[in-house]
Amino acid sequence: QPKRKAAFGSVGRRIPYRILHVINQDGESLGNMHRAEALRLMDEHSLKLVLLRENEEPPVYRLMTGQQIHEEQLKRAEKKKGSPKPGVVQKELSFSSAIAKNDLEIKTKQIAQWIEKKHHVKVTIRQAK
Asked: Locate the Translation initiation factor 3 N-terminal domain: which residues (predicted)?
């Protein structure tokens, strides 16, 4: 099975690495430490450990409050919404509100074809002078 990208959130106590680089909730580096030490800090301050960068050596984790995790999830969701998905074609069509009936019918047929092909369609109508 391909490795699925985990959602941003607390990893709880499931940490597969022995040595971690830990950042506190204010963004300051606490340096490299053993997994048990990081869990102790997490419990002492009632925080959650979140994996930031897994591909580094050692992997980077951050201590965060539940509110910080929620805000980061919202930011990531908003960012994901803004960028079109790879492989999805977006078509854009622009015309005047004074368009002739026949031209409008042709453009409507074109839009229907694009939608059948699963393209995203953006229509802009400009006001006639």
From this structure: 11-78
Q: What is the pTM of this model?
A: 0.55
Residue 1 confidence (pLDDT): 43
| CA distance linking residue 113 with residue 57, whole number of Å | 50
Q: Give CA separation, 6 vs 3, 27, 56, 60, in Å.
A: 9, 22, 16, 15
Q: What are the structural domains of the chain?
A: 19-82 (3.10.20.80), 90-126 (3.30.110.10)
| CA distance to 37, 74, 81, per residue, from 78 (Å) | 34, 6, 5
Q: What is the pLDDT of residues 26-58, one digit of tens each?
A: 888 888 988 888 888 888 888 888 888 888 888
